[in-house]
Structures are given as C-alpha cells and as structure tokens.
C-alpha cells in the first residue's frame, strides 16, 4: 500500500510569506489611501469647480441631499461634492489592473526560465519595487499635498503589485503535490490573514508609540506605510533564503531533449482533448440549472458590491460619523477580520449540515439585520455587533458560495465555473467603489454606507432565493451510486 502523502507545513508556511507580503500592503492600502484621497480631493480647486457647476446645472441635487440629511447634518457635510465619486473611481484601479495584468504576468511566468525558477524573478523584482513605491505615497502626500504628486505613485504601486501577485500565488501549487494543494491553500490563506491583521493594527501601534492624537494622524502615515514596506521586504527575504524553486533552465533543457517523445505524446493528448471537448459540448445545463447559475452570479455581484464598499470606505465613515482616526478604524476592521477567520471552519460545517443556500441566506440576514439596526438606532454598541456578527456572517456566505457555483457546473466544468465566479466578484469589486461613491456624493454623508450595503445584501438575498441547484450530493447517494456501478 502506497504511503499517504503529508503536507510539509514548514515549507508551505515559508511559501506563505509571499502572500503575507501582499496582504500587509493591501490591509494598509484601502483605509489609508481613501483618507489621503479624501484630504486631497475635498480641497482640490478643480473638484470644487466641477461640483459647483453641476449644482448650478442641476439644483435638484441639493433637494435630494436635503431629504437624506437634517439641516445640521447638511451644514456639517460641507455641501455637494464630487470627491467621493472620484475616490471610488481611483479605488477601482487595483482591481482593474488585477483583471488586466495578473493573468498576463501569470502566463509570462509560466514561460520564464531562470536559475532561481519561474516565479522568483517576478517576486524578487516586483516586491521590493512595490515596497519602495508604497513607502513614498504618504511622503509625496505630506510634501506636496497635491493630486498630481501622489497619483503617479498610486498608479505605479498597483501596477507593480499586479506584476508579481499571480506568480507568488502560483508558487504554492508549483511546490506542492496536486492532492495536497487544497490543504496547502488553507495554510497560504492563513498566512495572508495574518499579514492583513498586521497591516490593520500597524496604525494603532505607530500612533501609540509616537503619542499622536486623532487630529495628528497624518503625521503617522509615513511610518505606517514604511512599516508595511519593511514587512514586505522582510517576507520577500524569507522567500529568497528559505524557499528554493527548481532551476527552470535545466528543466527547459530536459524538455528539449525529450522533444521527440513529447511530440508523440502531444498528438495523443490533442486527440484526447478533442474527444473530451466534444464530450463536454454534449453536457449541457438544464434550463433550471442555467437560471440558478445566472441568479447565483447576480447575487454574488450584489454581495461583493456590499462587502467591497465596507472594506474600501469604512475608514472614511469612521472618521466622519464616529470621529475615529484611520488607525482606530483599521483596528475596528481587524475585529471584523478576526471574526471571519474564527468562523471559517464552523461555516463549512454549518454549510454541510444545513445546506449551502440556507447558510448563505442566514449570513445575509445577519448582515442586513445588524446594519439596519445600527442605522436606525445610531447606537455605538451596534457598530461592534456589526463588525463581530458581520465578520462571522461574511464567512458563512463566502465559504459556501464557490462550492455552490461549482456544484451547478459539475466535476467536468470546474475551471469554467470558477472563471464565472471570479468574473462576477471582480466585476463587483470594480463597480462597488464607483456605485457607492455616487451614492455618497448624492446623500452627503458616509452614514449612507449603512443604507447602500443592506440594499445590496437584500438584492443578493432575493437573487439567491431563486437558486434551486448547487447543494452537495449526500454521501448516502454517492455510496449507493458506487455500489450500483460495482
């Protein structure tokens, strides 16, 4: 009997340092960049001129704002401004670049042959450059306090991050046997979650060390970003010294030497692939399955619109409504992240016991309830409930959505339906900052986050209620089918 393979946890954790490096940066990026953009765009003469011109042309916009806010809130908001819309547009750049460039650089890394391997050149060049650009963003902001000075560094940062993101994710599958990759992926994501937590608490640590008040938080920004950059470089050094990729040049030479035999194998493989494609063409979804797929993907779009709006704009909400600094806001989001991590394994077990659809709907109802209750009562205690219960609810949803989509497609179309899943979620992450930015522009307050998200959750819930397929096949049925085949 063949010995059962076991995951090398030490090596997998070391590989996870690459994902940790990226996660630290993104955990700092969303709350701090939105705060920087808010400071820049709210006072930008061009934005103010355009805002005034729009109000002059469409005076009813002020009437709409008046229906959303009291007279005191309207006066405190500073009036109508296009700044939130532009913040939302800029905050989509990382997702747009990810959609465009990550697949391209991932494919390029597949074809790369170097002494250190296929993925390493992208990681060891991209990560240090990203770290440098990241550290320079707040320096440019404080030094010049202008959009033209800051934007090139933001754009270059998100571009370079997209250069090495796919290669660093591919490192684990490259160095892990196929049957152990799911287990390895859990370890990698845990490392990423730890990196995210470090990024979220970094601001509070820096402000405590420097003895800064909330009003002085901008003074801490260069140090927060620098700390993130140092951790990125440190994680990259761990990869460099502790994780060795096979020499891909030697592998390329071996492949050339086997070219003749490989040609014969390729012909046979092409024939097999052709037959498989013909077979898959005949496997069509039923009308009910197609309806379930469309509504599930639409539900995912609305779901990710809500969650992306939370992660992107929570720091601005916390500053405007709660009077919290960015560091305090990220600490609050750290609680959300911890609750997500704690709920990950229970969410999978609940999904198996209750069913995926019921678990997802339960999570959506929890999310909606805590957000609506806070909006109605404005009770600070319910913010903490929204973070704790919302984090757990988010994991109830997230853990069960991809398996449900894949179950609709079946084992023969896992790759295709994974693509459908990420098309829906990436589309939402691109659309959400713009959609909420427009709504915030019209409502005049970031309290509107607690209106936008429940509406998006409700739309998601209504779509998923229509889904009739995607549950796991019970073990008993599988066993009966296997017995029948035998």
Structure description:
- By secondary structure, this protein is an all-alpha fold.
- The protein has two domains: 9-250, MFS general substrate transporter like domains (Growth Hormone, Chain: A, Up-down Bundle); 287-471, Growth Hormone, Chain: A (Up-down Bundle), CATH 1.20.1250.20.
- 83% of the residues lie in helices and 0% in strands.
- The chain is built from 19 helices and no strands.
- Helix 7 (120-144) packs antiparallel against helix 10 (221-242).
- The protein is globular.
- Global Rg: 25 Å
Count the E strands: 0
Distance between the termini: 22 Å
* Main sheet characteristics: none
Mean pLDDT: 84
What's the name of the CATH homologous superfamily of the largest domain?
Answer: MFS general substrate transporter like domains
Name of the CATH architecture of the largest domain = Up-down Bundle
The CATH class of the largest domain is: Mainly Alpha
Overall outline: globular
Low-confidence parts: 475-482
